[in-house]
Amino acid sequence: MDIEDSSIKGGDCLHPNLEEVSNPLQDSELKDPGLKAGVSPNLMKIGMVCYPSLGGSGVVATELGKHLAAQGHEVHFITYEVPFRLNLEDPNIFFHEVEINRYDLFKYPDYALPLAVKIACVAEECKLDILHVHYAIPHATSALLAKQILHYRKKPAVVTTLHGTDITLVGKDPSYYQVVKLSIEQSDGITAVSQSLKNQTVETFHLKKTIEVIYNFIVPQNQLMGKKTLRKLFAKDDEKLLIHSSNFRNIKRPEDVLSIFMLVRKRLPCKLLFLGSGEGIAGLRQMVSHNQLEKEVFFLGKSREVALYLCSADLFLLPSSQESFGLAALEAMSYGLPVVASDVGGIPEVVEHGKTGWLAPCGDVEKMASYAIKTLSDQKLYREMSKNAQQHSAEKFCVSKILREYVAFYEKILREGR
Ligand code: GMT
């Protein structure tokens, strides 16, 4: 198909009136002055491809897109549903739905191919400068196919952000390895969310291309800071509230969370909140009932009000066996929760041992419990760590800083492509 005299039907822009968009920074509710200071003089048209549901990579992509749009860049989300934190009424935000063909012959519906076609359509019709794909599988592969459809034109330049299991778990799997390697290598720019993930990617795929480390960020809801609204539902005044949120896959080691809690409760009155859902929940419920902890451990399921629960809790637990970054820990820190975590992957780049939380070898629940007890039973230490956690998350992972890094990276990639 010749795209120049295109027979491709364009993406269905749900927010098409570009001319009417007012100055988004004046209108913006974004309070960080650094966001204005960092605005690039070259406004770009950026396609953003991500998983729109509750995963951390989707959250990062959505927040990045929202903040880029608030700076005046035009941001086009291309995915199968509206990302859950996205407001289509916001200026400069567009949404292009990827429709999946559920043809009877297909035992498994395919997403990668319609995504590739949609990317090509949107790139063509909206004249994208950059296509930023989050999570390599299948997004980087669809981007590569789209580039071929577009005859390898210079624009859009493809930036792939690696998030974690797209490398360390699924990407490594022989059924994906070759295609992931090819798709990453063919990207115009590659970023990883931590130094640890960068190292693992280079090692796993023997990559010669440079990978830029750009950390994740979190935008806490300042109005919730210090609000313990939900606390009374779960804990009495003299009880501590521990919390864990994840997708409860094996690598999150939710059973370790429970074991840590069981050790802590021998020394301190406390309760535990489990936020999220996933395959590990059923086994965990069994463990809870086996230990008769139904009145002390609460399963809250998936919630969009994660921040409200975090604000109401005292300590966050993340004993994962793999974690390229640990966005959940960063989010907890941003609300002043010290974190007790395993020292794997990118976690040590997020949680500073002895300052904003504690790190222990994966599986060492005794050590993790002893850190939790130490922090929760010493008010002075707790206050200091809580303050450090909030400050550290706001400084090292500040949205305006990370935004500048991404914009500078886009510009560099575009310059190199010229
Ligand atoms: O692979 C996953 O667990 C899902 C993925 C996601 O989409 O949330 O998580 C990864 O990306 C997050 C955002 O960059 C990181 O904070 C998580 O640490 C990472 N998960 C793993 O590495 C296990």
What are its keywords?
418 residues, alpha/beta, Rossmann fold, 2 domains, seven-stranded parallel β-sheet, six-stranded parallel β-sheet, 15% strand, globular, disordered N terminus, binds ligand GMT
Would you write up a description of this structure?
The protein is an alpha/beta fold and 418 residues long. It has helices spanning 24-27, 33-37, 56-70, 112-126, 136-149, 165-168, 177-185, 195-205, 231-234, 254-264, 281-290, 306-312, 327-334, 347-350, 365-376, 379-396, 399-417; strands at 45-49, 74-79, 93-97, 130-134, 157-162, 189-192, 212-213, 240-245, 270-275, 297-301, 315-318, 339-342, 357-360. It folds into two domains: 18-217 and 398-417, Rossmann fold, CATH 3.40.50.2000; 222-396, 3-Layer(aba) Sandwich (Rossmann fold), CATH 3.40.50. The protein is built from 17 helices and 13 strands. The protein has a seven-stranded parallel β-sheet, sandwiched between helices. Strands 10-9-8-11-12-13 form a six-stranded parallel β-sheet, with helices on both faces. Helix 13 links the parallel strand 11 (315-318) and strand 12. It is globular. Bound molecules: ligand GMT.
What helical percentage do the residues reach? 40-55%
Compute the average pLDDT. Answer: 90
CATH topology of the largest domain: Rossmann fold
Structural class, from helix and strand content? Answer: alpha/beta
Unique ligands: ligand GMT
Quaternary state reads: single chain
Total domains:
2
- Largest β-sheet summary: 7 strands, parallel
**Beta strands, count:** 13
Query: How many helices does DSSP assign?
Result: 17
Net shape: globular
| Name of the CATH homologous superfamily of the largest domain | Glycogen Phosphorylase B
Order of helices and strands: HHEHEEHEHEHHEHEHEHEHEHEHEHEHHH
Strand order of the largest sheet: 3-2-1-4-5-6-7
CATH class of the largest domain: Alpha Beta
